[in-house]
Structure to design on (371 residues):
């Protein structure tokens, strides 16, 4: 009985606990009706474990259902919730409010992408560029041509090491949003697509190296990268697009 | 016209070539004090030496190629569009040819004693 009472006391204390609050300044913009972006303030309580996405969903469900944002997995796997959090491109689900270390959190849509509404941006161009680089193994033969002659394209661990970090890309677009070239050159292919080009070029099962190098060897291709390195700094999955781009340049200059 | 990788190989090699040749050019300036090296007659004497004229002509060509390609890259990043890009590319190429021609004319005329 005493144990039950103590448990109830704990629950009661937990409910009465004063939670810290944070002020969210969220960018609101509808390209159809608005001429310019405006910021609306929302004050929310948060727990130690609360992420920015948790807070945004709380705002959407309890304060302002008109807030538009994109999200899905809530575990940094789908790459849907990329946005500018206090000026830095980050995944909302992968950023704890505590980590931001500020009483005011400014949320904006990612740069270098057209805005659909509020925090949701149009990723069509990024996916188009990604597709253009043929993000799949190119070979004339197949692993399973028919049931009688099935075979496997073998890879040793060293060969996997060549590309595995670049295979971690979740296509969130944070690298493209922070790229200084993308900000001025709307035709630039972008660090995301270039990294994926390297991922397949460096895969020893792939035979499409020439095809991909021809695509990126363009006026608005790989040579327009200024090697600012911001793409590598913001990647939430530890991918290093700047390094992939330098390796690809090595292929084109004949060093690799 | 050219693949971009070929253009960029030319861009990088002209940069390296320019640095090397300009270094030699600067070292020649050390043979006399700086003020004297800028005197009209002393400048003209440089052109009368064939090897030095070739050095100056090479510097002119390398820097023009590198500079105008750099300008083309900057302009291509500023704006996009097929017509604009063609104007920029051929405009930079034409400007480069004009500058090299005019500079070569000056070097040739001076080295032949016409100035």
């Amino acid at each position: 009985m005493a144990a039950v009472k103590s448990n109830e006391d704990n629950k009661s204390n937990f409910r009465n606990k004063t939670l810290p609050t944070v002020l969210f300044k969220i960018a609101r913009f509808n390209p159809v009706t608005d001429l310019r972006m405006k910021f609306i303030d929302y004050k929310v309580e948060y727990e130690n474990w609360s992420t920015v996405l948790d807070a945004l969903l709380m705002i959407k469900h309890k304060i302002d259902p008109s807030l538009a944002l994109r999200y899905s997995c809530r575990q940094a796997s789908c790459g849907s919730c990329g946005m500018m959090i206090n000026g830095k491109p980050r995944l909302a689900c992968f950023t704890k409010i505590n980590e931001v270390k500020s009483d005011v959190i400014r949320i904006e849509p990612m740069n270098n992408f057209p805005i659909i509404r509020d925090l949701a941006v149009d990723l069509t161009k990024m996916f188009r560029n990604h597709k253009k680089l043929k993000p799949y193994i190119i070979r004339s033969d197949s692993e399973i041509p028919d049931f009688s002659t099935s075979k496997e394209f073998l890879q040793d661990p060293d060969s996997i090491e060549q590309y595995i970090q670049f295979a971690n890309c979740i296509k969130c677009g944070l690298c493209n949003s922070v790229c200084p070239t993308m900000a001025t050159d709307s035709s630039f292919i972008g660090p995301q697509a270039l990294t994926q080009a390297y991922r397949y070029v460096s895969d020893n099962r792939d035979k499409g190296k020439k095809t991909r190098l021809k695509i990126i060897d363009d006026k608005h291709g790989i040579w327009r990268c200024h090697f600012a390195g911001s793409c590598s700094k913001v990647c939430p999955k530890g991918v290093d697009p700047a390094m992939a781009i330098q390796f690809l340049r090595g292929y084109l200059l004949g060093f690799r | 016209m050219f693949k971009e990788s070929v253009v960029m190989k030319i861009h990088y090699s002209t940069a390296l070539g320019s640095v090397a040749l300009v270094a030699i050019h600067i070292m020649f300036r050390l043979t006399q004090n700086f003020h004297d090296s800028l005197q009209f007659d002393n400048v003209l004497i440089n052109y009368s030496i064939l090897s030095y004229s070739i050095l100056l002509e090479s510097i002119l060509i390398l820097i023009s190629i590198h500079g105008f390609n750099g300008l083309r890259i900057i302009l291509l990043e500023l704006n996009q569009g097929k017509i604009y890009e063609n104007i920029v590319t051929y405009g930079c190429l034409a400007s480069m040819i004009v500058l090299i021609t005019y500079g070569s004319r000056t070097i040739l005329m001076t080295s032949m004693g016409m100035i």
